[in-house]
Design goal:
homotrimer, 4 helices, alpha+beta, 3-stranded antiparallel sheet, 5-stranded antiparallel sheet, elongated
């Protein structure tokens, strides 16, 4: 069994941002020299996620808006009454008592999951026609790491 | 290390439907001739999911109704005021501007995740007593694919 | 390729509880004698989850409260009007018709996902600085199992 590991570092300009990394993951598979196996793509931070979906800007804007409704931030006013009601009692997250302001980003990590496993067949990521891999940042503006671990033969 | 790959194609009659595939995944493990390893079960489309849960019809009906509340469709009227409030401004998803009508299905994919990894021990899927594997369709009526990739020894 | 399997059993005092298991997973990697590979950590029950996040009590309390808002229980009164509206029609889950009272726990399993895969590099779990692994119980008070399957070389 062969294995190969790469780390990527992101420092997004926006607090929340999707970064397409499909080609980076394929490059790690190429570097591994593996024909059959799996590539684990996993955020190393607790306020980020990895998602496989369509590279269509409308979907990404919809998803970011929807994540804000389901897991509303408290570092800006809630966008509507429903979002307001969903905030924990006291109007702010317990996590913020220590000075943090990213309580919602932990819940977005929960919603979106921090990792995917991509199958490798004949040396290529075995993805469907519209599947692209995205690093999803929910608390950007500083260095965040991601690991790509490729295993196979 | 041995590997084995199978593809399944689904064309569900319903737009949203759960299809039990536990036996298909076990058959792939049998074909692989693997005693110890993992089976990756991954939807190759961005409006579907894979879920491991109980094969109890009430749970599935509850889950479909709940998914519609949390990630409401816009191709039918919202089922209540809360669902209506959760819709993006303008009453419809940005993704629909290009003629699509499955914006909610992308969010359901996000909520439910598109893949699971099943451990294999002594040649069998090492699942708990009530764990069954389901392909979860959120935009059916046309061919959709899923990959089963088995790795091990 | 080497493999190693361990099972853990939990019987939490609380119905909902997070149990940190990072050291248990590392111990399984040590027992496996693997330098490069992956550790699958997967709940064997359908009303539990595995989450990687910060070991900060505020985050865990926030997450439990938020899970109750998004996937409200029906075995106690809803905590507010929004939670009440989100309940299935009839005020209770279909799953409860057979005498069960854990319908919400199945949805929390869906939200949080029942498994993670942890990369192993140089014999250590290759986690970020704040990443800890938690078993997440949503229907405790009785024996529940989890599998750790380590694969690699």
């Amino acid at each position: 069994m062969k294995s190969h590991t790469e780390y990527m570092t992101f420092e997004t300009a926006e607090r929340r941002e999707f970064v397409r990394i499909t080609d980076d993951v394929q490059a790690a598979v190429d570097a591994a020299g593996i024909d059959e196996g799996m590539a684990l793509v996993s955020a190393m931070h607790i306020t980020a996620a990895v998602w496989i979906n369509d590279d269509e800007p409308g979907i990404q804007a919809d998803a970011l808006e929807w994540l804000d409704k389901v897991a509303p931030p408290s570092w800006k006013p809630p966008s509507n009454d429903v979002a307001g009601e969903l905030l924990p009692e006291g109007g702010d997250y317990r996590h913020h008592r220590g000075g943090e302001d990213n309580g919602d980003a932990h819940l977005k990590n929960l919603l979106m999951h921090h990792q995917v496993i991509v199958p490798i067949t004949a040396g290529r990521l075995d993805l469907g026609p519209w599947q692209a891999i995205f690093y999803c940042e929910f608390d950007g503006g500083r260095d965040k790491r991601l690991i790509i671990k490729v295993l196979g033969d």
